[in-house]
Structure formats: structure tokens, C-alpha cells
Amino acid sequence: MTDDDHDLHRKPLPVSETTRRALTEPLRVERDHPNAWGDHEVVVINEVDDEVREHVVNLDALQCDCGDFVYRKRDEGKRCKHLIRALLVERYVELPWWVSVEQVANGLQADLGVTDDE
User: Where is the SWIM-type domain (predicted)?
Assistant: First the structure.
């Protein structure tokens, strides 16, 4: 990984609908999932109603296998909600200054070790 790659990992999160969804939706990041191959991959699980979707995120390559990333974000150099959530949980990026902790999903609060009491 080059210095430029490290800079991309640390790029601040933009104020966007995608970032909002990454912060507020009930997404779960699993490091030890069978579909995560190696230390550079995690699986982000999205449970909505009775539907469960799993997406593999490669943290080194800044890629996700979800349709949003594959069809739109990849060519624009943007991040999908799964990639943003994984980068937050794995501490590649910090919770943006403009985000109030009480706005963040409970699961993400636990992953980051923050509560709305702080």
C-alpha cells in the first residue's frame, strides 16, 4: 500500500445521504465471518425486516461487493454505506465532528465504544 492509499483511507467522511445511512442503519461488521478472507476483509451484514444481506468489504482496496458500489460508486471514487461503516468500525476513519452520538445507530455506538451519555 502506498502513502496515497493511506491518504484515501483517512479521507474525511462527506456530509451525504450515504454517510447518514452508514451511521444510522442497523449494520453489523464481522471480522471473523467465513466470507471474509484475511485481515483486510470484513463482512457487513444488513438486516432489514426479515431480509438479511451480507456484503464483503475489502479495506485495503476500499471496495465492496454491493450493487451500489459496483455500479455507481467505484467509478466515481465514492464509498457505499457498507464501506463507510467498515472504515468506521475498523478505525480507518473517525466519527465526523458534525455527527452527534445520539444520532448514531446503537450497534455502531457499541463498536466505537461511545454512548450518548458522553
Answer: 55-91
